[in-house]
Write a structure and sequence with these properties.
CATH architecture of the largest domain in chain A: 3-Layer(aba) Sandwich
Number of strands of chain B: 0
Number of helices of chain A: 10
Helix content of chain A: 25-40%
Transmembrane segments (chain B): 12-33, 45-69, 90-117, 123-145, 157-175, 210-229
Radius of gyration of chain A: 22 Å
Distance between the termini of chain B: 19 Å
CATH superfamily of the largest domain in chain A: P-loop containing nucleotide triphosphate hydrolases
Strand content of chain A: 25-35%
Mean pLDDT of chain A: 87
Order of helices and strands of chain A: EEEHEHEHHHEHEHEEHEEEHEH
Largest sheet of chain A: 6 strands, mixed
Largest interface: A-B, 29 and 20 residues
Main location (chain B): membrane
Helix content of chain B: over 70%
Shape of chain B: globular
Strand content of chain B: under 5%
CATH topology of the largest domain in chain A: Rossmann fold
Oligomer: heterodimer
Order of helices and strands of chain B: HHHHHHHHHHHH
Largest sheet of chain B: none
Strand order of the largest sheet of chain A: 5-6-7-3-8-9
Pfam family, one (chain B): ABC2_membrane
Domain ABC-2 type transporter transmembrane (chain B): 6-198
Organism (chain B): Streptomyces meridianus
Structural class of chain A: alpha/beta
Chain lengths: 306, 239
């Protein structure tokens, strides 16, 4: 990653470390986000996403390293109203309407969006006068999103915005998010769904065990984490030859079925066909969980303790 | 800060429990204590009026801490930390909210005293009484906020309710502290609620609060203020 001269980047993190007791939740991460970019922070539960976001927003102090938003300390950027955030698992306070809540947050910023526009962007027109504590899960999530963008901040940070949403609510959420990003704002969101990261971000940063393990476009990251998964029934044949197939990164055998992670599924399948080994063949995109297993299966330098 | 307080005042007044227990209860108890057994003499009507107004105001002030603890649990305080609002504005907004929501109890009980029980005071006395009862809630607001920052939501609710009852009873807000056992009566003089009620009672006697009363209450103000600041700082690291 290169630093550009001139206007400071929206986000610039160098060597940030944050530990809780003996757990290194964030273990030396570097991350840089240009203005106007939409970046996904992708990782499993407990990978360090929320801690990274806490550092970014100045809710946590790094023990080592440096975190800058727009060239200054995070708290200054937050205080100046340049940042909006949707934190994980926040619930809404009772006895206020959605409109009152959005209005209140909007007016704490120097140059807020008109409330009507925020409600429209977040798809809350219908429930604006309902009480915030009496909404469905999807509606609540949209209100929390509205609170993040109500102040018209330059940088919006969303921590697992679609957690606990059903498919329909998820789709409508991303529609709103993309509409907001298209206005030239910088967006950073975290997720543990590879397809969400790939489909909604310009760039994907993969974090695991507090370290950044991949950083690039969705395509690049998918390739880096091991492309596709080819599976078929072994029907009693041995397994030694599987590793020698073209493109194969890793092999796993479960109940007489082989699961091959491959960088080039076409080549792998053609080779299998030649060997007459196509029994109940399936090619699927590698799930993130599978990908991480592959990425983290390599022995760590200090020896994995967990 | 003003906007925050305004949001919080609306929230508090929409809480049925606040209206029932924070405002309704003191009035009900006042009327019960003074009307049972064929009415009360003028002195008791005025004394009980001050006591019950003080009890209602004290309870309302402390209840702000309970709401704060609930907001903390909901993650709302953390959400506020990612807005441009500074933490100190949040605390100040809360205190400002408390200073508004104590008013209904004071006004309603004093009105009941004047209209139902015919307590008769000079205009300046009514004014001074309401003002002193209003300003005197400050230590209790700080105690409630301290508890709110320090404790979990559930514990805060119980502790603040316990504080309200304990302080009210020992402080002689429900019945004169002269009715307490001697040893407790001696301690009662030094409790915050007793000094708080004394602020008002001195006015109903046509006098003004003594330096002793004021300094005892000021001492509690400092103590509870220190507690609130300490609890706030401690919680700011985790919220």
């Amino acid at each position: 990653m290169t630093m550009t001269e001139g206007t400071p980047r929206a986000v610039s993190v160098t060597g940030a470390v944050r530990t809780y007791g003996t757990v290194r939740a964030v273990d030396g991460i570097d991350m840089s986000i240009a203005r106007g970019e939409t970046v996904a922070l992708l990782g499993r539960n407990g990978a360090g996403k929320t801690t990274s976001i806490g550092l970014l927003l100045g809710l946590e102090e790094p023990e080592a390293g440096d975190v800058r938003l727009f060239g200054g300390p995070p708290r200054r950027a937050v205080g100046a109203g340049r940042v909006g955030a949707m934190l994980q698992e926040g619930r809404l306070i009772p006895r206020v309407t959605v409109r009152e809540l959005v209005t209140f947050v909007a007016h704490s910023y120097p140059r807020p969006l008109p409330v009507r526009e925020t409600l429209e962007l977040a798809g809350l027109d219908d429930v604006a006068d309902r009480r915030a504590d009496r909404l469905s899960g999807g509606q609540t999530q949209r209100v929390r999103f509205a609170l993040a963008l109500a102040g018209n901040p330059e940088l919006v940070v969303l921590d697992e915005p679609t957690a606990a949403l059903d498919v329909e609510a998820r789709r409508s959420f991303w529609t709103s998010m993309n509409r907001y990003a298209q206005r030239g704002n910088t967006v950073l969101f975290s997720t543990h769904y590879l397809e969400e990261a790939d489909g909604n971000a310009d760039r994907v940063v993969v974090i695991d065990r507090g370290r950044i393990v991949a950083d690039g476009s969705g395509e690049e990251v998918k390739r880096a984490v091991g492309g596709n998964l080819v599976s078929f029934d072994l029907a009693g044949s041995g397994t030694a030859w599987l590793r020698d197939l073209p493109g194969v990164l890793s092999v796993e055998v479960r109940r007489d079925r082989a699961f091959l992670r491959t960088t080039d599924s076409d080549a792998t399948v053609v080779a299998l066909a030649r060997l007459g080994a196509l029994r109940r063949l399936e090619v699927t995109a590698a799930s993130l969980e599978d990908a991480f297993l592959a990425l983290t299966a390599a022995p760590r330098p200090e020896g994995a303790t967990r | 800060m003003i906007r925050y307080a305004w949001l919080e005042v609306r929230r508090t007044l929409r809480e049925p429990a606040f209206v029932i227990f924070g405002v309704g209860m003191p009035v009900l108890m006042y009327l019960l204590f003074t009307r049972l057994g064929g009415g009360a003499d003028g002195d008791w009507a005025a004394t009980a009026m001050v006591g019950m107004a003080a009890y209602g105001a004290l309870g309302s002030a402390l209840s702000q801490g309970t709401v704060l603890a609930e907001d903390k649990t909901l993650g709302w305080l953390r959400q506020l930390r990612v807005t441009p609002l500074r933490p100190v504005e949040i605390v100040a907004g809360r205190a400002l909210t408390a200073s508004v929501v104590v008013l209904p109890a004071i006004v309603v009980v004093l009105a009941a005293g004047a209209l139902v029980n015919g307590v008769s005071l000079h205009a300046w006395q009514w004014g001074a009484l309401a003002f002193l009862l209003w300003i005197g809630t400050a230590p209790f607001t700080l105690l409630g906020l301290g508890n709110g920052y320090h404790l979990s939501a559930q514990t805060t609710g119980l502790v603040n309710m316990g504080c309200t009852l304990l302080l009210s009873i020992i402080g002689g807000l429900w019945f004169p502290s002269t009715l307490l056992p001697d040893w407790l009566g001696g301690i009662a003089q030094w409790t915050p609620a007793h000094s708080f009620a004394e602020l008002g009672l001195s006015v109903t006697r046509g006098s003004h609060p003594t330096a002793g009363t004021v300094s005892v209450l000021a001492g509690w103000l400092l103590l509870f203020g220190g507690y609130a600041v300490h609890a706030y700082r401690r919680s700011a690291r985790r919220v």
